[in-house]
Amino acid sequence: MSAPKYHLTSYGCQMNKLDSELVESRLRQRGYVAATSEADADVVLLNTCSVRQHAEDRVWSKLGTLRVRKRGQPGLVVGVLGCMAQEHQRYLLSRMPHVDLVVGPSAFGDIDQKVDAARAQNARIAAEREPARTKHEVAGAGVVAVGDGVSGDRIVRDVRVRPHRSQAYVSVMRGCNMPCTYCIVPTTRGDEVSRPLADLVEEAQRLCDDGVTEITLLGQTVNAYGRDLKGEHATLARLLRALHEIPALRRLAFITSHPNFLNQELIDTLAELPKLARYLHLPAQSGSNVVLKAMRRGYTVERYLARLEQLREKAPDIELHSDFIVGYPGETAAEFERTVDLVQQVGFAQSYVFKYSPRPGTLAAELADDVPEAEKERRNAVLLAAQEAITARQLGALVGQTLEVLGEGESKVDGRLSGRTVHHRLVHFDSRDAGVVGQYVPVRITAALGHSLVGERLADDAAEAGAHDRVEVQPS
Ligand code: SF4
Question: What is the pTM of this model?
Answer without folding.
Answer: 0.84
